[in-house]
């Protein structure tokens, strides 16, 4: 197995302390948003044999296994991350596989440059994702019941929001949510900025269920996404709890440290809380306007002490082992590729000693015995 040297991405929304604290090093003073573990071309992990992308490209079947290559092609299907949000991420959705293929083909055909600011589809893949909290972790996930969203908006006492409140009482619910989100994203920017400012002051004054939106508005003053965010469920994960984000589900991470895993894609359609391009027509085509429970996941017991976060996605499978002092050795050998990430304690993986924030890549079929005292996350695929 290969010890991984991983890149930390300095996105502006990143925490300045969370990843450094986990690694046990001094903070740099700059935001540290994500640590990437995998073979994504944007920042592949480095090994003693070269970058993980180069290692896999040199012999895909040896590194990934024949079944993985047959199902997903000669690439690692997932990207594993440590994610540390110190400020809200953009409000966003991801396309399903058919939508991604069609959108990518259309932009390629129209000659939209791959690095253009208005480019929507960076690849032809979908991007389901799962985030598991290591600390208390705040996020937004899926639409609230429209009547509950109406109550939240109405309590602000902002006259310019009254039409949205009325629309949210309409039926059917999906049409009501679509109309309100469309109105928010297409409103006059100056008028909306004034509405957001007034709404943010009311959220700050009211506190309680409104408090998260006051915090969002602090980071994104005047942004229409502040009002759009109030249509969504607010959820606070406790350590060990997780959220699964499927295609078309609007979401945003607000604050906290977690382990995130996703299909290897860059396709994001933004709804707000961002200075980046918002493709409103395409966004409205992709969003699923369905009220839903956030669906907090808790790990399910599996054989040999494994705790599995069950999702409908084959590109990734995330589980964890909480290893007690004096515990036995666990054999994690699989016929699929794995990344093992330590998040607490000290864990021996083969010849490597893993401390918080360190990880290894285990090629398909390679012996993988672990022991020690701590918490270990295991990322692999389903074939």
How would you classify the helix and strand content by structural class?
A: alpha+beta
Q: How many individual β-strands?
A: 21
Global outline: globular
Determine the fraction of residues in helical runs and give it as a percent range.
25-40%
Quick description:
The chain has 383 residues and is an alpha+beta fold. 28% of the residues lie in helices and 28% in strands.
Structural summary, described in words:
By secondary structure, the chain is α+β, with helices and mostly antiparallel strands. Helix content is 28%, strand content 28%. The chain contains twelve helices and 21 strands. Helix 6 runs antiparallel to helix 7 (162-168) and helix 9 (189-206) crosses helix 10 (211-219). The longest helix has 18 residues, at 189-206. The radius of gyration is 22 Å and the shape is globular.
Features:
28% strand; 12 helices; alpha+beta; 9-stranded antiparallel sheet; 383 residues; globular
Which SSEs are present, and which pair or pack?
Elements: E1 2-3, E2 7-9, H1 18-23, E3 34-37, E4 46-47, E5 50-51, H2 52-58, H3 60-64, H4 66-72, E6 78-85, E7 91-93, H5 97-109, E8 129-133, E9 137-143, H6 146-154, H7 162-168, H8 173-186, H9 189-206, H10 211-219, H11 225-229, E10 232-237, E11 242-245, E12 251-263, E13 269-272, H12 280-286, E14 300-301, E15 307-309, E16 317-323, E17 330-331, E18 338-349, E19 352-354, E20 359-362, E21 369-380
Antiparallel strand pairs: 1-20, 2-3, 3-6, 4-5, 6-12, 7-13, 8-11, 8-12, 9-10, 9-12, 14-15, 15-16, 16-21, 17-21, 18-19, 18-20, 18-21
Helix pairs in contact: 6-7, 9-10
